[in-house]
Amino acid sequence: MKKGFVIGMFYLLGLLLLSFGISMMIVADLGVGPWDALYVGLSETIGFTVGTWVFILGIILILLNGYLMKKMPDFLAIITIFLIGVFMDFWLLVAFAGVDALTMPVRAMMLAAGVIIIAVGITFYLQANFARNPIDSLMMAIQVRTGKSLAFSKTVMEVTVLVIAFLFGGPIGLGTVIVAFGIGSLIQFFITPVTNTRKRLTNETEVVL
């Protein structure tokens, strides 16, 4: 019971931090990751909130992943995309409402903080190994269908989404480059202490050094 509660808290806190970091980058307006740029571009071009597009595209990806993997779609992932979408709209429409005309130093600090918070959020969320984000599943599906490496599959996916985001006028800039090339290293940096914290809280004896 305790282990399930702790892991559930890591999952929720991870999604909360992830959505907060992304929202900070959006408000900083110095560029965001390819998928987030696509959500913002669709929101500004077509309408609906950013969180709504997280949910809409997430549903499409869940169905697409099921088709590519030739198995039942992972409908549990709806929980993850729903929570991310709700959290994103809360941060952008409530917490950061009216925040504009920021100076460049403030925007730069928000960008840096946003990237770090995203990485921490992902490491927390990964502890649960539950209802994985359909974007991660798409990378795996591409890898299975093409027979290429995960690195190749991720690159193809990210570049494709980046082009689409650009066509919809998504916020592409310095932050996009940082997310593309730096987020992996940050996740690697945080994964060990976060995993060890989770194991201590769940009374697991083995820790990662």
From TrEMBL:
Which InterPro entries does the record associate with it?
Answer: YczE/YyaS-like (IPR038750)
Pfam families documented for this protein:
DUF6198 (PF19700)
Give UniProt keywords alphabetically.
Membrane, Transmembrane, Transmembrane helix
Give TM regions. 7-26, 46-68, 75-96, 108-128, 149-168, 174-191
Q: Which domain of life is it from?
A: Bacteria
What is the recorded name of this protein? Membrane protein
Q: Which organism is it from?
A: Jeotgalibacillus salarius
